[in-house]
Amino acid sequence: MITVDTLVNKLRVASKKTLMSSALASMVFASTLAVSAPVQAAPAEEPGAFEMTADALVARPFGLALTTLGAAAFVVSLPFSALGGNVKEAADNLVVGPGKATFVRCLGCPTSGRKQKSAD
Fold this sequence. Notes:
- By secondary structure, the chain is mainly alpha-helical.
- It has 3 helices and no strands.
- It has a domain at 50-104.
- It has helices at 4-35, 49-84, 87-103.
- The longest helix has 36 residues, at 49-84.
- The mean pLDDT is 79.
């Protein structure tokens, strides 16, 4: 006979497995974003209100989440990175890249880096 405690324990194990697989999938997705080569875009005109709003409400919170997941992945992979001698590369790809895309980019701009003042 199945008791309530047995069902609760099975539910806990299943939810932990689901959470772990979701976290792993998110980290893999985030690492593919960080590893992809940056694309040099042609100089564009000033970002509009739609671009700035979408950046502030969607892209920045998503970037913060990716930076947080990347930092967690970096901490987990640190012993292996240290043994392999690529701690700097791991830090750049998992933490610094997403961090720059989130925090060092003008609002609405498609590329990382501070906005350059145009010489008029």
